[in-house]
Fold this sequence. Notes:
By secondary structure, the chain is an alpha/beta fold. It has one domain (about 5-265): Ribokinase (UDP-N-acetylmuramoyl-L-alanine:D-glutamate ligase). Helix content is about 40%, strand content about 25%. The chain is built from 9 helices and 11 strands. The protein has helices at about 20-30, 60-70, 85-100, 125-135, 145-150, 160-175, 215-230, 235-255, 270-275, and strands at about 5-15, 35-45, 55, 75-80, 100-110, 115, 115-120, 140, 180, 190-195, 200-205. The strands form 2 sheets. Strands 3-2-1-4-5-8-9-10-11 form a 9-stranded mixed beta sheet, sandwiched between helices. A two-stranded antiparallel sheet has the order 6-7. The chain is globular and about 55 Å long. About 40% of the residues are buried.
Amino acid sequence: MNYKRILTIQDISCVGQCSLTVALPILSACGLETAILPSAVLSTHTAGFSGFTFRDLTEDIPLIKEHWVKENIKFEAIYTGYLGSIAQIDMVKDVCNKTLTSGGKLIVDPAMADNGKLYSIFNDEYVEAMKGLCAIADYVVPNLTEACFLTGIEYKEVYDFKYIDAVTDGLLKLGAKNLVLTGISFREGYTGVLVIENGVKNYYEHVKLPNSCHGTGDIYASAFVGAMMQDKPAFESAKIAADYVLECIKCTGKDTDHWYGAKFEPVLDKLISALK
């Protein structure tokens, strides 16, 4: 495996198996030196827990960036997840400008919506700001809901190839160079991922498991980035990530008490094996 340094920028939900507590171990397991830039710290994630604590770290981001610049610290890739405000999106752009190596990759997971709705904290102005970040990305990894908000296309739960073509065309018009569109289903009982890299389109279909888990989007994006930074083509990386998420969901389904996240740790060996 190649030993590369990557930076991931997203929140820390201390308990709940999502965001940085997923990204850091998965990227590390993929053989990457993984640096982190937390956007916020929460005691738990917000899905199913009540009374969680929240500390915004927006003011710390420029100070961390300036220290890195002083120390000439550079990254071969920057991977963004949940960003809590327009100000943070603007700061991420500056971090990229100052710390991404020449030829380095920016991978954006526009974590802002699901199931046809924006997360409650976000609005149309945030969507516009996220469009700007996606426009400079080398790879954008949205689910269908996020893709629809980014393109202004009405979200549908039942659709055909023509509809998805319109969504991907809209994303490419934003300026994103390559796309990985997740959760795309053309027939009952199956779902998959659509990848467009260098203008070439491929679709990977797999069985849709009956149970779902919080945080699988973060697991998917992290595994995809980890595989791609080990020089796997985007489509192969997308397949590896999809297969790994399936293993995580299967593992979690055996434990009815594990409702708050996906048990990704016991099957990390399957991801590592897929990369060899």
